[in-house]
Write a structure and sequence with these properties.
The complex is a heterodimer of chains A (about 290) and B (about 270).
Chain A lengths: L4 H27 L2 E2 L8 E2 L3 H8 L1 H34 L2 H12 L6 H11 L6 H8 L15 H25 L4 H9 L4 H31 L1 H8 L10 H11 L3 H33 L1
Antiparallel strand pairs in A: 1-2
Helix pairs in contact in A: 1-12, 2-12, 3-7, 3-9, 5-7, 5-10, 7-9, 8-9, 9-12, 11-12
Chain B lengths: L6 H24 L21 H9 L2 H32 L5 H10 L9 H10 L6 H5 L6 H12 L3 H9 L4 H12 L1 H17 L2 H6 L8 H4 L12 H33 L4
Classes of the chains: A mainly alpha (about 290), B mainly alpha (about 270).
Chain lengths: ~290, ~270
């Protein structure tokens, strides 16, 4: 009896995760080797054909490139800027902290569907407030925030950035507040400038949390961006805003090419896992070395 | 002591205005008359503000039904996730068993799997057991949460082991310990997690979007789309009113629990 006690505690959660995450991954691997349109009963085994088709299709490379661009923008909007913001909070009197934190975290509590609708209006090329201000300062309107091939990724990234920003500020702030004060003070006595303290003490001390936030930002961003893509652009114009995760959806539920959709899922998952392994290796070497 | 207004204050204030402005804009736009959206003025005169958009929303869509759908889904998911997470976190934190660390790692792995990767098999499963357009279809796949397990395990591990041991010596069983000893100690973290689960479940767009096509089963984030991309053109005021109604419950929950939510994050102090 005693041996089965821990099993009883972990089994409700574990069986749910098994049924709704692990089994589906295995089933997706299977589907990536077949040709099927979800409706017909006959499923044809095609070997690696889906994978070959996938990497020879232009849309896949457009989506892969877009995913990379989304990730880079997310690092700036949702990691670097929140880090500076969290640092800024530590530099103001602590009586202000809670008010700043409350307001900065607020957008994180709103639905991305709500965010998308708000920004649909803000981005309106003729009547929207952004166009209004840009026209006032002399830009040529209308500006197609959501219809311009080169602009659309930035426009959508801002929506997700707006939502994720506060979450990362709070996480990064918690690690910044844990940097030992006496280390900073003794550096000050030794005549270090605030910039030197920031580079040589604060960043290394908070590097584990920075890496955690780096990883979460990329993982959450690629999923979150799905919602504004779906509501506002459907991946357009001409695949300009499609990322790998949205391509999975398009293959599956727009074109009913289940095999291709599954192959795209597996490729995305493998990229994620490689990325994860590299990151953990990096953490092992760099972070433990420094701390 | 003099109050120092430095560059950091300026930076933070500007940033907060930028972050909050879209929310204020949504609320302001929801009480604007439709005609005012098409004038060049950004701010309408105070006399032309109106609540008519809200009454129009209530007339055009079954608002009460959608709110109740969302509330039911969000509450069910929140309670179930709290129970499954607490049990699993206790199991991982308080027991030694074979393959424990491996199983825990696999659990954490699920945090990093984008939901879209498991989407087609889950959709097929839900369709196969005739759960499309039903509450169980929305709720059941979302009843466990690895992030919740992770955060609660951290919290439970910070509780001194002697507290559990002495309760065991006194003859309490594990369920009694969970409810009477542990829960009071970890209450702040538990409340914070519950509030976050509720907010996320209320906001969930993706999974309901996939499996709900019957309009009477819509949740609020889905209902938002009823006013976009329709033949008749977009009615901004009505759309903003719907967005405000969707956002309000999460803002209220956040306002009530912000102390728990933010300090819950700070205490969990996740390290890479």
């Amino acid at each position: 009896m005693k041996r089965y006690l821990p099993v009883m505690f972990i089994s409700p959660a574990l069986s749910l995760l098994f049924v709704f995450i692990f089994l589906p991954i295995l089933f997706t691997i299977f589907l990536s080797f077949v040709n099927w349109n979800m409706i017909e009963p006959n499923i044809k085994f095609v070997g690696l054909k889906n994978y070959i088709n996938l990497i020879t299709e232009k849309h896949f490379w457009v989506a892969a490139y877009n995913s990379l661009l989304y990730a880079i923008i997310a690092i700036v909007l949702d990691l670097i800027l929140p880090y500076i913001t969290a640092y800024a909070i530590t530099r103001v009197k602590s009586s202000w902290h809670s008010l700043f934190k409350i307001l900065i975290f607020l957008p994180t509590t709103l639905s991305l569907a709500v965010g998308s609708i708000i920004f649909l209006w803000l981005y309106n090329p003729v009547l929207g407030p952004f166009s209004y201000f840009l026209k006032e300062i002399g830009y040529k309107t209308p500006i197609g925030f959501l219809t311009d091939y080169h602009l659309v990724i930035y426009s959508l990234s801002i929506i997700v950035g707006w939502k994720l920003f506060g979450y990362n500020v709070i996480i990064l702030l918690s690690s910044l507040l844990n940097v030992p004060v006496d280390q900073i003070n003794s550096a000050k006595i030794d005549g270090a400038t605030p910039w030197q303290i920031f580079i040589h003490i604060i960043i290394p001390q908070t590097s584990p949390t920075i890496l955690y936030a780096f990883f979460m930002t990329i993982v959450l961003n690629i999923q979150y961006i799905f919602v504004p893509i779906q509501i506002l652009t459907n991946g357009g114009p001409d695949y300009a805003s499609t990322n790998l995760v949205y391509l999975i959806y398009q293959y599956g539920f727009n074109f009913f090419r289940i095999g291709m959709s599954a192959a795209c899922s597996i490729v995305t998952l493998i990229i994620f896992i490689i990325f994860m392994i590299l990151l953990f290796k990096f953490i092992d070497k760099k972070v433990y070395y420094e701390s | 002591m003099k109050v120092k207004i430095n560059i950091w204050h300026l930076f933070l204030s500007t940033l907060i205005i930028i972050l909050i402005l879209p929310v204020l804009w949504m609320i302001l736009s929801s009480i604007k008359q439709e005609a005012d959206f098409y004038t060049v003025k950004l701010f309408p005169s105070i006399h032309s503000l109106t609540f008519s958009n809200y009454t129009t929303v209530a007339e055009k869509i079954p608002l009460a039904r959608y709110l109740l759908n969302t509330l039911f889904v969000a509450i069910s998911i929140t309670i179930a996730k709290l129970i499954t997470s607490l049990l699993a976190a206790y199991g991982f934190a308080r027991f030694n068993f074979k393959y424990r660390d491996f199983i825990f790692m696999m659990c954490i792995f699920t945090i990093f799997v984008p939901i879209q990767i498991t989407m087609i098999p889950n959709y097929l499963l839900i369709a196969k057991i005739h759960w499309l357009n039903t509450f169980p279809g929305i709720i059941v796949p979302q009843l466990a949460d690895a992030m919740g397990i992770f955060l609660l395990r951290q919290t439970i591990k910070s509780v001194p082991a002697s507290i559990f041991d002495s309760a065991l010596v006194d003859g309490a069983n594990h369920i009694q310990i969970l409810l009477k000893v542990l829960l009071p100690i970890i209450k702040p973290a538990f409340i914070a997690l519950g509030a976050l689960f509720f907010i996320n479940a209320w906001n969930e767009y993706y999974w309901p979007f996939l499996i709900i096509s019957d309009k009477s089963m819509y949740t609020m984030p889905l209902a938002l789309q009823l006013f976009t991309s329709q033949e008749g053109g977009t009615q901004w005021g009505i759309m903003m009113a719907t967005a405000t109604i969707t956002a309000l419950p999460t803002i209220i929950i956040y306002a009530f629990f912000q102390k728990y939510i933010i300090s819950g994050f700070i205490k969990s102090n996740i390290k890479g």
